[in-house]
Fold these 4 entries.
Entry 1:
Amino acid sequence: MSITADSSNLADQERLRSQAEQLTKRRRQRERRFSRGVRISYIVLFLLLAFLFSGFHAEAFGRTFKTIGLDWGFIRTYIPFIFRGVWLTILLSILAIGLSIILAILGALGRLSKSPPAYALATFYVSLIRGTPLLLQLFFFFLALPQLGIVLTGMTAGVLALGINYGAYNTEIVRAGIQSVGVGQREAALAIGMTNNQIMRRIVLPQALKLTIPPLGNQFIAMLKDTSLVATTGFVWELLWRAQKVGRANFRSLEALLIAAVFYWIITIIFSAVQDRIEARVARGERQLS
């Protein structure tokens, strides 16, 4: 009886193992088919985009069909000039997002503070900045501050405008991250004698910043594109400013703006990939700790 039972158990285990292997095999096949379908779809979309700007021209059924024609000689000539604005765009974004995170942490602490002046100041800052357009704030630094005797360079004004604007939006992101940390952890820290400042600095803020990495990363990517607003001042030779300059000078604004659009797209893809790597590393670290 024992030998028969053991044989039955081994047969059941073998059958379960075989079923699990079959399920895993089918899942991998579905994943491969999905990946292959995505790659094919990408190729089709890029071909359609290339056809849209191919300059194709044909007549059929008494109607003229044509796509957008581009001056490829102009594009080849001015790509290097426009490309030099990429580094300034990235630098502007990094400095501005750094300022915005500092302001966001201070604003979030103010919004959660029991001090009436701190709460009022943080709330007023968030309300004012979120209630006015970014472009208006940018021109404020160029037009209003000089009347107070404060004259800023184009780069400084751009960093301040973008940093202060995004700091107001990031304040709510950081505040939500701080509030998501469990009350039990704070109570446990108080029980072992930690002060409120130590709890915030050593327990709450590190966890809150981990939770805010995805939305803050999205804000940074959005800021990369909003740096184009700095071009309206004419004082910062970033990506869009260079594209507009050569486009207007050569009556090829469409080609110049398309070059800028492609560079913005490439920058966004690169930093999106970096963001995904950071999020994956943070998630892997949390799984290892748990």
Entry 2:
Amino acid sequence: MKTNRLTPLALIATLCAAGCASNSELQKVQADARDAQRLSEQAMAKAREADARSLSTEEALNRSYRHTLRK
């Protein structure tokens, strides 16, 4: 009975080709992850800025409301 087997040289070539493709894919995923991290940090900075503005506006409205109640 004849079996289909890869020769050791063909097996090594196949593994090397798969490894090279895998490395380039890994590099792309890592670059995408860095981009996502950068975007996440930018979004968090904007969210903190919006939160600070919101708190500032809330304080101003509260002062105005308290001032109106005193009249």
Entry 3:
Amino acid sequence: MAATTLTRRSFVAGAMLGSASILARSVRAAAYTFTQYHNQPATSSLHRRLVEMWTAIRNETNGRVDTQVFAENNKIAGSDPAALQMLVSGDIQFFTLMGGILGTVVPAAEVQQVPFVFRSAAQAHHALDGALGAYLRTEMAAKGIGGFAVGAFDNGMRQIAGTKRPIVTPDDLAGIRMRVPAGQLVADTFKALGAEPITINSSGIYDALKSGRVDAQENPLALVDLFKLYEVVQYVSMTNHMWSGFNQLAHWPTWQRLPDDIRRIINRNVTKYVRLQRVDQQRANDRLRAELTTRGLVFNDVDAAPFRRKMSGVYAAWKERLGTKCWSLLEGTV
């Protein structure tokens, strides 16, 4: 009996040592630990696809890469602009961000927000997966930011949702205090349309509308749903005035230090999950008009032509600001 007991103890002790050894190997296997920020809620398709993406990367690298994904930029003060600075400094290694805010560091990225140019999200994807996107990646690398060949997660075509009145013609925007994200081109667009642009980070949109600090905001319908803006707006005008997406970005020095095989795995999975999320977002934006109508929001369609005619000064200024090459690539796409 004593011998049997000893054998069992030996077995248990051996099993415990074996488990500890496996655990130690697992911990050592995570040779690269990264942080990924994005500004959407944890309920968003963007968050879900990023988590799936990094899980796939962890599995395909046999645990060598382990990345934690934080929704809403981990609630940091300063939101997107602050997170962008963290990416540039290397405090975080991966981040998704719209072109207008990225343009505060990489001016050419503002081309993604040129108003009334992209007629659909699919057209924007085509541009950013092609020569225009390649040009932007070169510009980003010069600022210490890495991009991906198929790296633009989708946000969608932007619409105006507000509290005062439907926006049918440009005159309806006169005097409207319009929440806009950081980025000069969006602000210039709404100034040209007669509105007063007020820059507020995404985390503050709801409170700004509820308090009356702003009269309206402009975002894809999916954002109206995810941030529960339907509780504080009444009118939604389908202006489709510009496209926006979430560019998957990397801290360039970190990216350059990665082994080639890991970079290939990350690249392949970024492409895969960007494409999956684009489908998710398009479906959400397509179905939400009917759903938000049932919540009491009043929708109206908009003829873009009168708004586009107000953009001549904006186009002239930004053609010069973005440069001939960037503008030519944009024109060649659309």
Entry 4:
Amino acid sequence: MKRLLCVLLASVIGLSTAACSSGTNTADASSASSVGSQTASSPSDSSLPYYVHSADKITGNITVYTTMEDKEQEVLKGLWSKYYPKCEMKIQADSIGTLATKIRGDQSTNADVVIGGMFQADGSMYQDILQKYTAACDKEQSYHDPAGYYTYYDVQVMCLVVNPELCKQFGVKISGYKDLLNPKLKKKIILADPSASSSGWRQLQTILAVMGDKFNDDKSWNYIKQLIPMCFSTSSSKAVYNLVSSGEYVAGLSYESAVKDMIKDGAPIECVYMKEGNTAMAGGAAIVKKAKNLPAAQAMMDLLSSSEFQSARAKESCGRGSNSKCKLNDLPESSTLNMKDLNFSYLSKNKGDICKKWNDLWAQLHK
């Protein structure tokens, strides 16, 4: 009997120990499983760039008003769908003037952001329809909006678009503004109207900056007086480089990214940087004041400010980015282009007077 009781007691102790051991292991396994689950989900968030938000928080629709060309739009769509698959992007493309008028005139507009067509020299022109925001990559940016509205992603540098075959036919060489005064080029040059086109206004700024002893002096206007009779004018920036490419004009006053992109696609033209000098101006985007999807609008500004987007855009459409880490794609360093500084506040305040002077001279001299 004693021997039987000892055996029974040993069995009970063994079962109790096993149960305790089993309970401990179960708890440990449960804890390990929980930790493993957390660890497995963390990399997907931690591996995202710091300027990318959680995809679960960026949902619904984002309506984008933009002046971007098709290639730029495709780059943006690709990155947006990559990071925010739960938020559909809807795009309406037009000129900045038309888009701004639509926002101001339609109280029910569903625009969340405006991308493109807005530059450093705008002053307070669009602030009534926008709201302030500082993008995630602001510290990497080489350009900043002191008023806090714009998120820059583009730097516009000017150029001459030249048809080399026609240059041979006319026996001319074009390397700068002065070469446009060659009598052989009379009526063979096209430019955009500064009062109707952003690129035309940028070209006028550049001429006033590099063709005189100081900005907007008599010397620079004397050059303009000689240039006007040589040219035809258009209200369209696109018409300038398209008509030179098609052979209707020998040269045009244009901007770098568009001309370089056409060359990339095989257009028979050249991008000539004026030997007299050049100017640069940042352009960007902003959040509409009454954005219906503010989280998505903020995520959009953060993405636009990134070197990832700007480098991808540079590769596809030859844009020059404002992020200091953006890679150039077949573009010269700005330090090689004899850049002249612009007074953006002065340009904003005096655009009307400067354009009026241009228009008066055009009416007087272009016959």
